[in-house]
Amino acid sequence: MSADTFQSINWSILTPEFIILGVIAILILLDLFMPKTLSRKILGWIGIAAILAALIFTLNMAGGPVRTILDNTFRVDSFAIAFKSLLLVGAALVMFLATSYETKAGLERYEAEFYYIFLSALLGAMVMTSSGDLITLYVGLELLSIPSYILAGMRKFDSKSNEAAMKYVISGGISSAIALFGMSYVYGIAGSTDLIEIASKLSMLADGQQAYLLGLAFLMIFVGLAFKISAAPFHMWAPDVYQGAPTPVTAFLSVVSKTAGFVIVIRVLLTVFGAAASNGPNSMPIIMNMQDYIAVIAGATMIIGNVVALKQSDIKRMFAYSSIAHAGYLLVAVTSLSANMFYSIWFYLLAYLLMNLGAFAVIQVVSEKSGSTKIADFAGLYRRSPVLAVAMGILLISLAGFPGTAGFIGKLNIFAGAFAGDPHYVLASVMIATTVVSYFYYFGVMTQMFFRPAEDESKFNLPFGIIIVLIVAVAGSILFGLMPNLALDFMNNHLDILNDFFGQ
Amino acid sequence: MNLGWALTLLVLFPLLGIVVLAFMPKTAEKSIKLVGFLATLPSLLLALAAYLHFKWGKDLADFAVTHDWIQFRGMNADEPYFSVNFELGLSGFQLILVVLTAVVATLAAIASKYVKKEWKGYYMLFLLLETGMLGVFTAENLILFFLFFEITLIPTFFLIGKWGYFEKEKAAYSFLIYNGLGSAVLLIVIMILFAKTGTTNIEILKSIMADPSAPLSGDLKLGLFIALLIAFGVKLPIFPLHSWMLKVHVQAPPAVVMIHSGILLKIGAYGLIRFGLGIFPEQFEKLATLLAILGVINLLYGAFLAFIQTDFKMVLAYSSISHMGIVLIGLAAMNEAGVQGAIFQVISHGLISALLFFLVGVLYERTDTSLIENLGGLAKGMPIAAGFLLAAAMASLGLPGMSGFVSEFMAFLGLFNELPWVAAVGTLGIILTAAYLLRAVLGMTFGQAHREFAGIMDLRGVEFIPVVVLTFLIVLIGVYPSVLSAPLQATLETIMLGLGG
């Protein structure tokens, strides 16, 4: 590459990624040269500052045309901006959690490592949102996955944490491999890794045999990605990993990692298989043929997630199954392929991010105090700390999807999509029925917090980071529940996902 | 004249009370109770003012209010994919329900003086519940209705589960799950209507559904109506869906049962009338016989089981089931007398059950029991309370001159016109009602005394307010029914128009 070509590339669209990358390097160096005795907390704050800076640059790009560099391998379109901002907001909140994380198991020695490994994972997720090519997509996915494996095993001397990391590496590795194998079929038929080019080639596909092969590729990619979003029946790793990993990592896996998973699901499935003809040119796209498979997975995910969550006595495992259930709700939106699909998924992920991270903030505080993660530890929380209990109550109500909270608007949106056009009555009914099932376990925590007496009456000291997360999460859940247009208008006014998504 | 602000204020005022309460110290029992009570007053005054507004011949449409609320965009960024407005309004039917709600809520706030712990949380939830109820009856679109409907669920869950009696958690759970299922079914109906017609505004939906070219097939409409019947059948409750409501009646604190039995159950009736009868008149007609039979089953089943209960609260719980049967009977008649009787029954039962449960609260507070046997000889120990108890029971069994009579009479009048045989079976229920109420009440007032009433105070002080107000209203409706029938006139006419009769 000559100097001229190098300069002609519009590197500025990579600013958010460069900021994160730069700070990763700085943090590594600082960690190396800082005296051992100094607290590494400061590194966490630098990381937060970097994430916020990246967020500002990302939001600044909203409203512009689609910009691509490096042969469309990296693109900044509305979809990328919308989901990248979600990732950054989620990551910032997780960092706040991490700076407040104190554990007896001695994470302190690796605290700095946590920050920069976490930022690397974030970088991978950001690349995924912006990639327009199977290669960058996969590289982003691995850049997200590999640090995630390390994060899960962050508590070196804790056997549960080790078990979590081991399970995560194996299941994650296998799923990546399956997805990659599926992608190789796509490459074999289309002869390109550029998503848009693949789409245009495949829409002309005349050979029925090749369409059959593509169907197989679809299933393989979908199965591989279903692992990442922990959809049933590929969800088995989630509860163990969630339980074993340190709480901020669990929060990261359940929110940031899951958001990234949906990003890649939408990118690949919709661009490639939304265009690929199933039976000669101008026939139905393959994704429409495959709708039933997605629907079955969505239904199974919602049912398994919600039903198994009922029996959990460990709060982190319960939230693992709850997050599986939420992945199921999101898959309903993917299944229905309605016109407001992007909006409903985006809004749901936003609501989910707020309520889940808030809940994990409370879980972190309570479990640090009690030294375990049993649901019974929440007994009498209302007496011990009314603020914490009420905040958790609001977040649980939002997770359960009661009106007045962001969780409800998110579900409503998905629901409306499921009935629009070709209605999916069964799937929507499963979604509603399992939502009612979820009342049992969410309100089970409520019962502990508000009705049961506390075992020890000690009060809580809320660290600054936790307070920030709780304020953002609770205020956001209520605000977007009562005035969802605050968030939706940002999408409406600045971003035109549908037009950008498929265009050059 | 636009009075939309007044209606918005009426609905949201209790929330202001919550804010004030939030800044009060937890232990200031007296002032918390006072603020909790005072916070219900503005809504009551506004509701009464709205009634006078109507009484003076002005238009209730003045109260309508519409704001943009949610817009979801889809394919075309300029055109809303769908939008939901914040719409409140009042019709005659809604007006009397709002007045009922405001009255019962204020009186229940007085009855809440028996609450023994954590007053602050109690009153905050109580006020949230009031906003939810007022919102349910004034919402003009289905999404908003659903929002308020669910807002009533959460405070009620906590009020039962935390301040109730021995098996409170179980009762709270069964309340949550049954009602959760009911509202889930309701949400499906709402969203299908929304997706098919693009609106959730109730009045617009009515006219769309009346239009034969509407994009809904007859089968779909029937399915939606049956779903609606189940959703509100849980709330009302209709016979096989009632078990949760017994638990709530027995386990919840009396003040909450006043609200629950007096108003929350009425949401079921309101929904059936406004949405069932209003949006799906044809389907309602198809299933009218079934509804009449369900109504008679409710009436007889409730009455039979009330006859053998030993706990007065259980008698009242089954009596509520029985009385809600009369609502169904009236509705199934689908003529003016029947529907009017049903609505009268809604109001009348709201007042009577609030009164009865207030008295239960008074008795329980003093004697720690609600078993009929243990309360024998009450007339000697607490003559005034016993007197009011008897009066309430008389109203409940339909003594002429009190509200219960007017409503039962009209409901049966309506049904005899349409389905005389079903109605004839139903009249058995009226006899049974008299039997079980007299058995229970006489057992308490004049029955054998198993205890000393020495040192037990009769009604006193503020306790007179709920008792006198409710008795007054019950008699007022009994002797001068046009306080209700006048506002209802317009509503009934539109319903009849929808039925094509």
According to DSSP, the number of beta strands of chain B is 2
What sort of overall outline of chain A do the alpha carbons produce when their principal axes are compared?
globular
Side-by-side strand order of the widest sheet of chain B:
1-2
Looking at how many chains there are and whether they match, the oligomeric state comes to heterodimer
Give the CA-based shape of chain B: globular
Roughly how many Å is the radius of gyration of chain B? 22 Å
The N- and C-terminal alpha carbons of chain B lie at a distance of: 33 Å
Which regions of chain B have little confidence, pLDDT < 50, spanning 5+ residues?
A: none
Structure summary:
The complex is a heterodimer of chains A (504) and B (501). Chain A has 504 residues and is mostly helical.
Task: Set down the secondary structure blueprint.
The complex is a heterodimer of chains A (504) and B (501).
Chain A: H1 3-8, H2 15-33, H3 41-60, E1 67-69, E2 74-76, H4 78-99, H5 111-130, H6 134-152, H7 159-190, H8 195-203, H9 208-228, H10 237-244, H11 247-273, H12 286-289, H13 291-309, H14 315-336, H15 341-370, H16 381-384, H17 386-400, H18 406-419, H19 425-451, H20 464-482, H21 485-494, H22 497-502
Antiparallel strand pairs in A: 1-2
Chain B: H1 4-22, H2 29-38, H3 41-55, E1 65-73, E2 80-88, H4 92-111, H5 119-138, H6 142-163, H7 168-197, H8 202-210, H9 218-235, H10 243-251, H11 254-279, H12 281-286, H13 288-307, H14 312-333, H15 336-367, H16 378-381, H17 383-397, H18 403-418, H19 420-445, H20 464-479, H21 482-499
Antiparallel strand pairs in B: 1-2
